Amino acid sequence: MKNVTHPSGAGAIPGSSFWNQPVYRSLIIQAITFALIAGTGYYLISNLVMNLNARNIPIGLDFLAQRAGFDIGDAAITYTAQDSYGRAFVVGIINTLKVSLISILLATVIGIVIGIARLSPNWLVKNLTRGYVEYMRNVPLLLQLFFWYALLTHALPSARQAFNPVPGVFLSNRGLFLPTLESDSGFYFLLFGLLAGLTAALIWRFRANTLQKGTGRQLPVFWPFIALLATGGLVGWLLSPQGITVDMPALKGFNFKGGIEITTEFFCLMIGLVTYTSAFIAENVRSGILAVNKGQQEAASSLGLSPVRSQRLVILPQALRVIIPPTTSQYMNVIKNSSLGVAIGYSDLVSVGGTTLNQTGQAVECISLIMLVYLCTSLATSLFMNWYNASVALTER
After folding, report:
1. What pLDDT score was predicted for residue 95?
2. Pick from 196, 226, 221: nearest CA to 209
3. What does the CA dihedral 132, 137, 138, 144 come to, rounded to 10 degrees?
4. Which domain holds residue 330?
């Protein structure tokens, strides 16, 4: 039987009741649903405003300009208790992004290595990496954070008995203290030298790739890359007129002053995020490699490519279409899981927002700001990874 459509609208059935018309019924259901959602939202917001007014709690973001009155132990930018709540939020955002980006980079590298090792013909390597993956994936991240924090705070010595493996490097239960370069003229000479060395290294890599595509001849890339980068830095160091000023950490009182400090809380959170996420990325890499036809590996071997070059130039580029989509989710999970750092005392966005909430009572505004930041960072990560996925996608010609 043919479906008869009414001229006035697609899907309308002549001779049927108004409710039996699919088009009209769909519009009515959508209108009722929208009205229920709008009504519920209006009721909740009006009730919220009424309760806040009854408690004399102002609504708005004016509190961000008020004096914070609390310290942040791991501030990436200059911050004191005299600064505003708005600046405290900025410090929390930077701390969240800092630990997230570093964890994403390290988890990616470790995940790729473990994922490839999971396919190793060596029985010991294969089973060790399998055990690592199974353990890390099946133990909750919060418990892992508690484990690392308890281990480092109890296993490492106090600041006065800190490990000092090389001059200027101290490791204690307060954290890791390293020398840092001062931002004087010598520092900029060194920076320019490193940039020049990096430019030369990239040119060498481009030439090597061009030569291989044109003639099949393979030039070494890794060690020349390292040598050019180190040479550029050394030349910049030697050409600096005033030398390089190094700020060395030193024990003063109960803690170290000077240099750069990597706090125990930051280190524990980073280790937990890296080990937990790398296990999931390793499985993504393993599944992506298994999705590539075995004939590709045989073809690469027949061309004289080493196993390492075969993986880098033939297998992994084809496996990326399987690896990238689930890995994108893991990257976003790293950003969201960093909020667990509040459990071990890391001053991230959630920690700063919670302290601000307790002092000001602006619960709705604080929670909304935290949610907005996580939403924006997750969407930005997704957009970037989708762009990268499209740029490396294999296209048939």
Report:
1. 92
2. 221
3. 80
4. 85-139+264-391
User: How many domains would you assign to the chain?
Assistant: 2
pLDDT tens for each residue of 96-139: 999 999 999 999 999 999 999 998 888 999 999 999 999 999 99
- Whether residue 316 is found in the same domain as residue 367: yes
The residue written with tokens 């204690």 in the block is: 172
Look at residue 128 and tell me if it is in a domain: yes
| pTM recorded for the entire structure | 0.79
Residue 231 neighbours by CB distance under 10 Å: 15
**Residue 97 belongs to a domain:** yes
Positions of E strands within the chain: 170-172, 175-178, 180-181, 246-247, 250-252, 255-257, 260-263
**Is the Cβ–Cβ distance between 280 and 323 less than 8 Å?**
no
Query: In whole angstroms, what is the distance from residue 309 CA to residue 319 CA?
Result: 14
Torsion sign (Cα): 59, 65, 68, 71? positive
Q: Residue 243: name the closest of 168, 328, 185, 157 by CA.
A: 185
Least confident of 216-225, 269-278, 305-314: 305-314
